[in-house]
Amino acid sequence: MAILHPRITNPSFSKSPLDGRKKGFSLICGFHGCLLRSTSPFPFFMAVAFEAGGLLRAILLLLQAIPVSLLVGQNSHMGMKAMAFFAFCGLKTKHMDLATRAVLPRLYMEDLDSGVYEVMAAAGRKVVCSSLPRVMVERFLKEYLGVDEVVAPEMHVIGERYSGFFASSYEELLIRKGKVDVGILSSSDPDPNEQFFLPHSKEVYVVNRESRTEARARKLPRENYPKPLVFHDGRLAFLPTPSAALALFLWLPFAAILSVLRMLTGIVFHQRISLFVGAAIGVHIRVSHTQSHNPNKSRNPNPKSSSVLYVCNHRTLLDPIFLSLVLCRSIPAVTYSLSPISEAISPIHTVRLTRDRCRDAATIRSLLAAGDLAICPEGTTCREPYLLRFSSLFAELTDNIEPVAMKVSGVSVFYGTTATGLKWLDPIFFFMNPRPSYHVAFLRRVPPEMTVAGGWSAADVANRIQKELAEALGFQCTKLTRRDKYLVLAGNDGVVLPSSAG
User: What is the pLDDT of residue 66?
Assistant: First the structure.
């Protein structure tokens, strides 16, 4: 737990604001450096610049960070204005809306201080003040943490773009808030703006930041998140601190070349050769299967239906390609919203589904009549350790079902999936990670008595396979769907027209 010291007391004497206090008290606290473990606002401005503004904007933001830090400090008024200008100037409001909806919540959630959050969870009326722009923090604080009031400066907007300048500050707002029971702020490189709430707190506590080791120990465990973090978007898989951002830009030229080589390996060479060449250039593949089980010989004893339907959970667009690699033969795959570019460069045959149940059923039947087939019943990818609801359509069409658990690791720099960006770039970003890894686990074929032919309903078959895959992966089953994902991340139902598939 974070060490909270009462202000104007001996710093070596620690005391929790919860000691001897009933729940429901009013609370005001700072944001970065207090509610968040990070004391610098730079990583969050960098996330906005890179994800919403693009590579050039992110580079410019990094270049100004060194002189700003040396001359005025990142947490000063001038430092905050400089970072806000480079991150926001000319940025479209709709792009910022996507960042606050899909990108920033993950960064904030993973950076929450467990001790301060414990105090906030026990509070009644909650007020959070931040020197970060209101648009960057308000949605997360209200939707995820249930904060009642957010005190933060507004960004100036001209038409549909930000000017890069603050339209207001929050000092005058704080004067009208009145007294609260508890105030919490950080003592490590404090933001001068956050000192304005001190006169409005009956008791003030300070969060000490003594070492990075202690800061990591105060990370809020996933199981204690205020809301499950199932969906998020954006390409960056790490918190872009100044040093991490510099390493990213130095890595990019090599990563781009390496990604192209890795993709060409799967396109040019046969699967058996691709496995060895891929391993030589940093792509790790691990295969496992149940005891006395050979995936290459898994066939239905019914000679009238010898084709195998491989049912996979969906981590990236590369799932069926890695399945084909480990089987050393090309397995066609059915998918939704595949972009024309992805379809053109895919080393395996891919077929789009239309979301028309009758047409899709006919398509899958015809493909199964021609041979084995791969399908991902979730209908969309999920980055976190959760499985979305499985469509039951596949269970209605065949009894020869082989569950395959897909697990991705080594995603240390870029995520290889997107809901709001260009989907054809997904494989490129995935292979730009230093050591991307796939674990393909073949589970036992579904027993005939547990299929539709054995008297089970299609929904029961789909739910059983979802549960079996979740247990094999250590994931949690959910009833969430593709539509839920896109409503959260993009504000739409996820239906993409073929002409606009990105």
Answer: 84
